Input
Amino acid sequence: MSPMLIGLLLDGLKETIFMVGISAGLAALAGVPLGVVLVVTGNGQILQNKPINRILGAVVNATRSTPFIILLIAIIPVTRLIVGSSIGTAAATVPLTIAATPFVARLAESSLREVDAGLVEAAEAMGASPWQIVTKVLLPEAWPGIVAGITITVVSLIGYSAMAGAVGGGGLGDLGIRYGYQRFQPEVMLAVVVVLIVLVQAVQSAGDLIARRLNKKVPRGKA
Amino acid sequence: MIEIEGLQKTFSAGDNPTAALKDVSLSIKQGEIFGIIGRSGAGKSTLVRCINLLERPSAGRISVNGREISSLSGAALREARREIGMIFQHFNLLSSRTVFDNVAFPLELAGRSKAEIAREVTPLLDLVGLTDKRDRYPSELSGGQKQRVGIARALASKPAVLLCDEATSALDPETTKSILALLRDINRKLGLTIVLITHEMPVIKEICDRVAVLDQGSVVEQGTVFEIFTAPQAEITRRFVSDVIDRPLPSMLIERLQATPLTQGNVVLRIVFTGPTANSPIISEVVQRYGVLLNILQGNVEYIQGAPYGNIVVEAVGQPQAVQEVIDHIRDNNLRVEVLGHVADAHRAVA
Output
């Protein structure tokens, strides 16, 4: 493998990690609270609110059903407004974040729903406020599931970032397409795929490890 | 301590509302252990959950420790709930917190400082015997230990009342006993009023002072545990009580038992001793005075709230006239006696 190719791979890897890191971080920051709101405003929940629940649910579903490649182009004006440009690695993080947020929200929602209703009831019986129930009961109990959800999101984002690369975002996917497909260098594409496999594997293992550490439902030593 | 007046709760599931509680009124005294027993679906869980407003009554008034609860909401309700501890059938411990942090939870909710929390939690862990498990997670504990954590947690905010929602129903009999003993101990040491709901009569017998029997959303009977056990009035109460103290007659006896008197036969009697008379030697007295032999077929003496309750089945061997005198004599001494039937004399050698 030529030193030039190694340099290209390293640059691509850096760009991919940058795009995915920023957008996953922002998606987690926005998606987890969104998931909380989706849960607590649901029917029979501590802050039941049908209109809010319906509207948020619809927005989440609409975003999730838009194909990423269309979303990427459709929100170019928004991207330009936020980053000042619609081309480049930083610009790619905007659509990636917007696509990943509802994804995180739904995954967080399903983990939060799995928290035993008895725990919420016990906290209510002890005089907990809705905010205390969210921060001291729901989130701590759902953390292992939420972390697993964020891991899934990161892995999906690595896939999406290849498409973002196609609009000038750079990254490994872009490298693979430009060299492997457009310049007929299949070995570059192969190298890109290998690097991606290793990256995804590393992310998944790290996510699993953190989720397992956080999960106290399984006795120590059996985890 | 707890006054419940005309409590009603109706659940509206679709178009047909179901009445879970129909006009329940109870008065629970300071420092007593009050049991509420009923079959599943009787409304007992709804009743206990109305006391801390986890369930909002459809009508009626509830006051706890002189404070009207049923009209509260928001911060005032949260404040009032801190005076009412609760333990649950499935413990409801936070899996992500250690034993110490679970017990500290209500104090944390009340905004107490770390130092204060440490000072309060340590003696509670000691009280429930879990000092050595303070850094363990609930998943590492047995059912009985989890309920002990639940009890310590419920006591942390120094409540005046402890509600127990089927607190021993998920535990084996031995663990149940130790948890009940702990509750009794806490009741005596702290003067805590305990309201306990259960479907298990042995639980009532073991620790309650007074009991209300709930059936289809209504209180059908209430009284001291001794009264309920020794003189149950409602049919449902009788069935609950008989599960615990009336042993069924041995099948050998049932086979021999006949409804009508036999020429060469003996009468089978059930004699029930309650209260102070249980200690007087009435059996030997009638044997001596009337010359009737009493052959004991079955018998047991239970102690309910420290008072004896005896229940024996005898075959009375003697002249019909004398046997009737024996029955009258026992009745005159305020004991219950019941003719179960007649059996042919298996041993009579002489007429």
User: Anything to note?
Assistant: The first strand of chain B starts at residue 2 and ends at 13. The first helix of chain B runs from residue 44 to 51.
